[in-house]
Amino acid sequence: MTHTPYLTTLSPAADSDVLRRAFSCFPSGVVAVCARIGDELVGMAASAFTTVSLEPPLVSLCVQNTSTTWPRLRGVSEVGVSVFAGDQSALCRQLAGPAHLRFAAIEPLHTEAGAVFVPGAAASLSCSLYNEIPAGDHTLVLLRINQLDADPAVEPLVFHASGFRTLVSRAAVDAPSGP
Fold first, then answer.
1. Other beta carbons within 10 Å of 95
2. Mean confidence (pLDDT) of the chain
3. Domain 28-159 carries which CATH code?
4. Please, what sign has the CA dihedral across residues 133, 139, 140, 144?
5. Domain layout of the chain by residue ranges
6. Known Pfam families for this protein (predicted)?
7. Does 149 score more than 80 pLDDT?
8. How many CA atoms within 13 Å lie on the side-chain side of 113?
9. Per-residue pLDDT averaged across 42-56, rounded?
10. In sequence order, what E strands does the chain have?
C-alpha cells in the first residue's frame, strides 16, 4: 500500500497576506463598469470578472462592500461592461482612482439606455442587474448580457500577481526563433 505524502506548507486562510498571495496566483479579467446617470458619467474598474452562463447570458464581478460607486450603478437600467484591452492598464488605473477624475480625457461610447463603454475595449457588454449575492467583504454581482460587441483579436488585460498583464499566445511562445 502506498502512502500519499502530506502537504505540510499550508497556512491558515485567516492570514490575509497569505490569502492575497494565493489569490494573486490566479489571473482574472479586468473590466470597466459604467453608466450615465443624468448628465454624469459614473464608473469603476473591477478585477474579479468572469463568465458565468450562456443560458441565460450571465457574467459576474465582485464589488467591495465599501464601494460608493456600485450603489449608484446598481439602480440604472443598463450598465456598460468594457473588457479592457491589453494596452489599457493606465486607463484601468484611472477608472479605479478618484471618482472625479475617472473620465478625464476619455471620450466614452454609450447606448441610448445609458450604458457607457471604454473605446478600444476587447469586448463591450450592455448588461442589466440579474442578482446580487453577499459574499464576505464583497458582493458577487451577476449581470445579464443584453447586447454585446467583441473582438477576439484584441488581447485582453488581466490582473495577475498583483499587477496588470497581457496574454501571450502559446503558438507565439512555442514558435522557433530565427532562420
1. 26
2. 86
3. 2.30.110.10
4. positive
5. 28-159
6. Flavin_Reduct (PF01613)
7. yes
8. 13
9. 92
10. 28-37, 40-53, 58-64, 79-83, 109-110, 116-117, 123-135, 138-150, 157-160, 163-166
